[in-house]
Specification:
Elements lengths: L1 H17 L2 H5 L5 E6 L6 E3 L5 E3 L1 H17 L5 E5 L8 H13 L5 E5 L27 H12 L6 E5 L2 E5 L20 H13 L6 E4 L19 H9 L4 E5 L13 E4 L2 E4 L18 E7 L3 E8 L4 E9 L3 H7 L3 E3 H4 L3 E3 L4
Parallel strand pairs: 1-4, 4-5, 7-8, 8-9, 9-11
Antiparallel strand pairs: 1-12, 2-3, 6-7, 10-11, 10-15, 12-13, 13-14, 14-16
Helix pairs in contact: 3-4, 4-5, 6-7
């Protein structure tokens, strides 16, 4: 018990010495970007086929965009990491794009496909929820093409370099439409996983690589108790070979509040992105916030800051060492909550 207390005390001292809020304010980041997910915009028909708009989802998405503009009007990118919609139907996408047009956002907006983007298969021709007749004439090809058409993405998986840093977006290529057992899991084909492996090898390993997938790897970040990826073991094995990877996932809606496993390390760094529409606690109850991440990239570190858009306040923030032999040597191959291993974490002191 004494040994554990001493270890905790030492960790606190290291935490306080490593993180310097004042110093951060006086150095310019090389790149800044934000990551949000699970915005769940909905407009068109409710489950009974009656006209419906989820005004709360729309208001929270718009508020998040405006808040991020106030935080940093010059950030280079915004990543919306899946579950853009509720039904996956065109009316949801139309409303999402209307909100984007009417509110400020970076020039680079990257979209990942989520499980809800395949949910048009639950709707009949009149827009009503009709699970018994699933997939109601809908195909995965149609769902994916609708996603690509409305987001401008070239594929469900792609790489884009922004300000000298690789952003790799992954995405499910199949759903329960093909095989019921897939459910809401992400299905990454052999072709996609091979492409990812090649892209990571080509990145050089001397800079952070940002990887985005809607679904989390199992038993990692908060809310990842089940297996949400069909080929999770192979994906994890690929990512473990690259300690420079920072992997962002959503899906669970798990809030940042009182959650040490917002950030997790298992050979590479993983981050939960919560939800704009409806963050949930461990009992799956709403916490009355709207959340996402703001990332600052410096030459030797990343600073990741949790933001509550609804109240316009910072929550926690984390400092992550960027690729360099000494830093990566300390954390390579470890499996632990990031807070237990690299205690360079300090709650934000400013709004």
């Amino acid at each position: 018990m004494v040994r554990r207390w001493l270890a905790g005390a030492m960790a606190l001292l290291v935490m306080m010495s490593v993180f310097h809020p004042v110093a951060e304010a006086h150095s310019e980041p090389l790149v800044t970007f934000s990551v949000i997910s699970d915005i769940h915009v909905r407009a068109g028909k409710n489950d009974a086929g009656k006209p419906y708009v989820d005004h709360k989802a729309a208001a929270r998405f718009a508020a998040a965009l405006r808040d991020l503009q106030r935080v940093d009007p010059n950030q280079q990118a915004l990543v919306i990491n899946g579950d853009l919609t509720v039904t996956g139907m065109q009316s949801d996408y139309d409303y999402m794009n209307r909100i984007l047009r009417d509110n400020p956002h970076p020039k680079n907006v990257l979209f990942a496909i989520g499980n809800h983007e395949f949910y048009a298969a639950f709707r009949d021709a009149r827009g009503r929820q009709h699970r018994r007749s699933f997939p109601n004439g809908e195909t995965e090809t149609a769902c994916i093409q609708r996603f690509l058409h409305n987001t401008g993405m070239s594929n469900v998986y792609f790489e884009r370099w922004i300000a000298g840093y690789p952003f790799i977006v992954l995405g499910s290529e199949q759903s329960r439409i093909t095989r019921r057992s897939i459910g809401d899991q992400a299905y990454l084909s052999n072709a996609q996983l091979t492409w990812l492996q090649n892209a990571l090898n080509a990145s050089g390993g001397h800079r952070p690589v940002f990887v985005f997938l809607h679904q989390p790897l199992p038993q990692t970040v908060a809310g990842s108790t089940g297996n949400a990826i069909v080929h999770a073991e192979r994906l994890q094995a690929i990512l473990r070979k690259h300690p420079e990877v920072v992997f962002f996932s959503g899906h669970s809606h798990r809030t940042f509040r009182n959650e040490p496993r917002t950030i997790f390390r298992d050979g590479f760094t993983m981050l939960n992105t919560s939800s704009v529409r409806n963050p949930l606690n461990r009992l799956n109850l709403p916490v009355g916030s709207s959340e996402g991440l703001y990332v600052q990239v410096y030459s030797h570190r990343l600073v990741v800051r949790e933001r509550d858009f609804l109240h316009g306040v910072w929550m926690n923030q984390f400092t992550i060492p960027t690729p360099s032999p000494p830093a990566l040597g300390r954390i390579r191959g470890s499996r632990t909550a990031f807070t237990d291993l690299l205690p360079s974490i300090h709650p934000s002191l400013t709004r």
